[in-house]
Amino acid sequence: MDLGHAHLFLNHIPIIGSVILFFFFLFSLFKKRESLIRISLWFFVCTALVLIPVYFTGEPAEEMAFTIPGITEETVQPHESAALISLIIMEVIGAASLMTVLIFKKEKKIPMWLGYSLAVLSIIYLGSIGLTANLGGEIRHTEIKTEKTITN
User: Fold this and answer.
1) 114, 41 in Cβ contact below 8 A?
2) What is the span of the domain harbouring residue 144?
3) What is the count of structural domains for the chain?
4) pLDDT tens for residues 119-144?
5) Under a CB-based contact definition with an 8 Å cutoff, are residues 62 and 80 in contact?
6) Closest C-alpha among 89, 90, 95, 122 to residue 19
7) What is the DSSP code (8-state) at residue 111?
8) Radius of gyration from C-alpha coordinates of the chain
9) Disulfide-capable partner of 3 in 23, 60, 70, 115 (CB 3.0 to 4.6 Å)?
């Protein structure tokens, strides 16, 4: 398996995992269970770490894709741009989560406003990663392309 294959394999982890993690985090906030909130924050950190190799294996995957007839820079560029935005958002969430668990040690309760702020950022991230995944899928799966992307 080369880095292009690694990209195709790894990219599903932060997509599917983030959806599950988001609902787990909302549940922990709703129940106000400090231990579950902390577990969620650590998973945000892990997701941010996993997203780094996903992003940086994108270039080898792009080179692999260029060997397929009909795939050009114009085909890949929207996915690449959306991926960078998703990476930045998730790295901010991961860094904020790490700082939160380190600053608010076991004896200090995590303020709910901080949890809600991370939940809002998570919603933004889910929209961003959803768009990134869709644009990535459109590179090879022409059946999911919208009329707008077909005519461009």
Assistant:
1) no
2) 3-151
3) 1
4) 999 999 999 999 998 898 887 776 66
5) yes
6) 122
7) P
8) 17
9) 60
